[in-house]
Amino acid sequence: MPVADHQSTLSDAAMSAATGRHPLDWFELLDAQHAAAWSHAEIARWLSQHERVDGWWAQSITVRFEQARGMRAPGQMADGTYTVGASKSIPGDQQQALDRAIAVFSAHLGIEPASVNRTAKYPTARWKLADGESMLVTASPTKNARTSISAAHSRISDADRAGTAKGELASVVNGLAPSLD
Predict the structure, then answer these.
(1) Residue that is last in its domain, among 15, 42, 68
(2) What is the number of structural domains in the chain?
(3) In this predicted model, what pLDDT tens digit does every residue of 151-167 receive, in sequence order?
């Protein structure tokens, strides 16, 4: 399962509507500034300070620009590692859903979480994995007595491993609901 590029998850129309410019117009502007030689933080900061772009959109424009210019692969973070994610809405309140996710992920990973935060607005569990990788599961309330479980597998060292990890993560997340229905 390949990791999606930013363009696949955020349309040109959405970016244009929110920022007043089409992505290609942003790329032209950034090219004129020689932004391909800048760091991710420098590009986003420049967009925020000089073009008055909201922080979230500055990040989105920056990622799209970096991917379009070959500075970053799809799914790749600014530090060169990859993060993949998956989510599913399941029956139950946040604590019930988090308990289910902890059981399923712990069984899959073969280890217990390194930390669990049940008092946060969005409760979490985190696992420390081999090679410095980590897994974060977050429980967010939705409607109709359901909770969205979002899982992020981070600090993956290469794109091939990220693609494999994304498919594996989707499979684990999809397996969360049956025991609660």
Answers:
(1) 68
(2) 2
(3) 999 999 998 899 899 99
Output b/e per residue, 52-74; b: 16+ Cβ within 10 A.
ebeeebbbbbbbbbbbbeebbeb
56 is written with which tokens?
């979230």
Position 79: which residue type? D
**Quick one: tokens of 149?**
């479980």
DSSP-assigned letters across all residues of 94-122: HHHHHHHHHHHHHHHHTS--SEEESSSSS
pTM above 0.90, yes or no: no
Tens-place pLDDT, residues 86-125: 999 999 999 999 999 999 999 999 999 999 999 999 999 9
Decide: helix, strand or coil at residue 123: coil
Q: In sequence order, what E strands does 28-169 have?
A: 82-91, 115-117, 124-128, 134-141, 146-156
Point out the domain boundary residue: 45, 68, 91: 68
Q: Report residue 80 as tokens.
A: 């060169």
Verify that 64 and 97 share a domain, yes or no.
no
| Same domain (yes/no): 47, 123 | no
89 is in which domain, residue-wise?
82-174
Instruction: Please indicate, yes or no, whether residues 30 and 95 belong to a single structural domain of this protein.
Output: no
Q: Identify whether the C-beta of residue 101 lies closer than 8 Å to the C-beta of residue 125.
A: yes
